[in-house]
Amino acid sequence: MSIKLLPATLLSLVMCCFTATHAQVKPLVFTEFDLPNEAHVILLEDHTAPVVATVIHYKVGSRDEDPARTGFAHFFEHLMFESTDKIERGTVDKLVTGAGGQLNAYTSVDETVYHFEVPSNQFKLALWIEGQRMRKLNINPIGVETQRGVVKEERKNRYDNAPYGGWYEKVHAYLFANTPYAWSPIGSSQHIDSASIAEFKAFYDSYYQPNNAIISIAGDFNPDEVREVLNAYFAIYPKAPSPIRPVFTGLQPMTSEIRETIKDPKAQLQAMFMGYRGLSMTDDDAYAADLLSGIMTRGESSRMYRTLVDSLQVAVQVSMSSSSRQYAGSFLVIGIAAPGKELADVEAAIDAEIKKLLEGGITDAELAKAKNQSEVEFISQRSGMYNKALQLASYSRYFGNTGLVNNELEKYMKVTKEDVMRVAQKILKTKNRVVLNYLPSRG
Length: 443
Hints:
Strand order of the largest sheet: 1-2-6-3-5-4
Distance between the termini: 41 Å
CATH class of the largest domain: Alpha Beta
Oligomer: single chain
Structural class: alpha+beta
Order of helices and strands: HEEEHHEEHHHHHEHEEHHEEHHHHHE
């Protein structure tokens, strides 16, 4: 349930235009097949713009790592931009941008995704680079040492030296203790520092294989020509043994509330981060959970914003979000205290709003508004070739049915008030949660 936020004014305009029009959204028409080595291919032919987007979705994320070697999946997100047998160091981005394209990648707990968007007459370049990186990546001292430094610096900037930088890791370490979801994709600098080149090669050989990849292509192309290129650049590799993955055996019950206070010299304001056990992305109730979070905190007219920020003025920011993973999920609440206010006031106000929800339910108007917002988000996620290719790959991977990409909006629209309240009771009617209090510290 990834959400792309739009500015409030634009959001309202788009909602006016698209409310109750979900039945008119054109379905994505695609073909899919496997190469002889079992690389799964999805093709969406779309000639509305002279652009082609390629998405290579590798079925490897931080949950596939050894707990003593965390950060490997994210490390490879960086290392794949080094060199191959035929691509010199530091030239991947130059090749793509020089051809008028753009590129990027990301890593999550469940996946690593690489994507290019290029002019349609340059799609062969994008696929050639991806074919090279799939099995001909150079894993050598110069590339490894360069990326060790890059990854460690990224961790410093995003986590270690940022206000409240460790909250997300801490919450999930508690929520998902003793499972492969207990650490974040950024991993440990110490693990990356101490890992050998042989270990990196073993990880690459396990997960960067054709039969562990989904190749999703959307845009202005000739399907026959694309198939020829795929055969030339990807089908040349043999099928590999299936990777041996850590097994997600389920979560142990939480039997009490977990609380921790952290003194943070980088923080300017007191902040509270709460974590509840949520729902996996394949749970039918995940849609109701997403709508629930929208009702509570999405926008300045939402329940918690009106109460904590506008009325009580105990917080300058409050949010609630449903974060779904393949096998589990979290439900997160954030409250940043207003100057001069205490976290006890913030927590009391949050708990009062949760109690009001559980006892009083939601209104028809609130549910309708949340559905309208989801409709806008659904439409925005279907705009552009990259978004289309990404959505197709994700549905193929996680639901085993790529065609479900055309039914997601319908699932949101079918959610009832009773569904939302059932999910609210399931997730929020408990004190078995994680509460982290961050307090500014000056030496």
